[in-house]
Amino acid sequence: MTTSASRALIPLGIFLALAALLFYGLGQNPREIPSPLVDKPAPDFALASLKAPDRTLTKDLLRGKVSLVNVWASWCPSCRQEHAELMRIARENDVQIIGLNWKDNRPEALQMLQRFGDPYSEIIYDPDNKTGIDWGVYGAPETFVVDGDGIIRHKRIGPIDQQVWESEIRPIIERYSAKKS
Amino acid sequence: MMRPTLKALATAGLLTGAIAIGTAHAFTLEEFTFEDPAKTHEFRDLVGKLRCLVCQNESLAGSQASVAQDLRKEVYRMMREGKSRQEVVDFLVERYGDFVLYDPPIKPSTYVLWFGPFLFVGFGAFLLLRTLQRKKEEPEQDLSETEQERLRQLLAKPGNQQD
Q: Which residues form the signal peptide (chain A) (predicted)?
């Protein structure tokens, strides 16, 4: 009697396990595609600066300290949404934020910075998606954490808000900043 | 009576205009041709087998996303330079991951994907065979004496004969 009763519970168990698995799947975001570049050296680039068109920016920017490389564009609403948070991060923390202005045009990009402030220490101007393709960018905003040796340590897809900053980005920056000093 | 019709006509005209403008901007594969038709064919085949990361259920060939157009241009440029199909695929996988492939490679992280279905089928077959085996082992119960008698009576009844 007990064996047949417990045997009858097996399908229920399988059902519950399957339901739990599928429920977990619901919480996953299919848009967040893990980047194969994490823990690899950041791809080289040589592009003009957005703010000073005659200056060429290269990967040397990323050496020596942990950087956030933030992919943004003036046409991207989520970038505007995250802009205030980037301003706050730049103000309150000692982390250099490098902008990668992506598939945008110079006047509109500069206008956005004029209106909403400029959290970036340097901005790479990539209107033709050159560096974007090398970095595996497929949407904006995206943010890479690059350590002082120029290795990509994390990729955030989608806007950064305070919660993302505190729980996801800041711990990684602190880990790799500590390693340096 | 005339005015509403005119208005409707004007609206229809505007709408058609908007649609025309919309389609004028659509990306097509027409701009990507090679002197060698076989290469053009290969290009179309390749972009049809790569996945667009923005609109994930579309191939690179069919997607209207601007990133897809950039990648089509890149694939086209590489093929013009004489890069092989494998080199193009490696280039994209290096940057975007296996996700760009509709046909993911067999490696430890995809074992479940590739072999999971066989495991399920195997497990199902095992359960099925075992149940059938059990059934065979339990012989069907014979009729008791009284039941046998009743059966004989029923069969012997003339009314039950089939014609």
A: none
My answer on whether B67 and B132 are in the same domain is no
For A47, the 3-state DSSP assignment is: strand
CATH number for the domain that contains residue B95? 1.10.8.640
CATH number of the domain bearing residue A146? 3.40.30.10
Q: Which residue matches tokens 């974007």?
A: A132
Q: List the structure tokens of A137.
A: 């960018």
Find out whether A99 and A72 touch, Cβ atoms under 8 Å: yes
3-state DSSP assignment of residue A109 = helix
Number of domains in chain B: 2
DSSP run (H or E) holding A97: strand A96-102
Compute the distance between CA of residue B44 and CA of residue B49 in angstroms, rounded to an integer. Answer: 9
Q: By C-alpha distance, which of A156, A146, A131, A132 is closest to A177? A: A146
Q: Residue B13: what pLDDT?
A: 53
For A33, the closest of B74, B94, B97 (CB atoms) is: B97
Shortest distance between the Cα of B61 and any Cα of chain A, in A, equals: 16
For A140-167, how does the pLDDT look when each residue is reduced to its tens digit (9 = 90+)?
899 999 999 999 999 999 999 999 999 9
Question: Number of residue pairs across A and B with CB atoms under 8 Å?
Answer: 39
